[in-house]
Amino acid sequence: METGKAYLELTLEIMIDALKEQAIAELTELGFEGFLEENLLLKAYKEIPNRSDGYQNPLLNEWLSKHKINHSLSILQDQNWNALWERNFEPVCIENFTVIRANFHAPIKGFEHELIITPKMSFGTGHHATTYSVIQMMRNIDFNGKTVYDFGTGTGVLAILAEKLGAASIVATDNDPWCIDNAKENVVVNACKKIEIALVDSIGDQQKYDIILANINRHIIEANQKALFHQLNSNGSLVLSGLLESDEEDIKKIFISYNLTHKRTIRKNGWVAIHLTKS
User: Which domains does the chain have, with CATH numbers?
Assistant: First the structure.
C-alpha cells in the first residue's frame, strides 16, 4: 500500500574521483537524480513510492552485484529531503561569472550573475561538472535577443542564466514532474519573465531556436539527434553535456555528420560539454 513519497538513499564507498563520476553516469541511467559527495562516500538519491512492503529494484541490485562496491541503502521520508540538502548544499562559484546559491544563503557579491536555486530533488544545482561546464561555455555565447531551448532543464538553472544573459525567450522542458515544479519555483524566485516551462517526453520538432542547451546524457542526446539538428536555426549554437570524456568523439562525429561545426569542448572531472554551431 502506498502512503506517499519517499527517497532511496544509496551510499557507496568509492575512493577514486574518476570512479565516482562513472558511478554517477551509470546511476543516472537507473533513475537516480540527486548526488552528494562526502569525503570517500558518494550518496545517490531516487524518488520511490513509500510502500509498507519495502522497495526492490532488480536493475540496481544487478548493478551493485556487478561492481561489488561497499554500500548501504536507506529510505528517507519526503519531509526529510530539504533538510538533507540544506545541510550539504554550498554555493557554487564559477569563475567571477556566476554564483549559484540557495535561498537560505546570504547574497554573494563580486559576480556578474547571481542565481538562487532552491536545492530540491532536481539535477542542476551547478555542483556537478556538467552543469558547471555548460555555464562556463554560456559565458562565451551571445544570448542577447536569442531564442533558447533548454532540453532537460532540471532545476531551471541554465534557462534562468540564459534570461539573465539577455535571451528574448526561453522554452525549458523536462520529463520529470518534480523537476518541472522545482524549475517553476526557481523561475519565480529569480524574477524571470521570459521562460516557459513544459513537461515533455521528447524534444519534438515544432519550433526552431537560436541556441539549444541539452545537458542530459548520451542516450537521450543520441535518440533526439535529428530533432536537435532540425530545431536549431542557421548560425545557431548547440551545447551538449551530461557526457563522459569517452563519449566526446562519438557525439562529435554524429553532429559533424549533420554538417555542424565543432567550436569548443570543456572537460572537467571526466565529463565534457561540447559547443557546436550550424552554418
Answer: 2-86 (3.30.70), 123-278 (3.40.50.150)
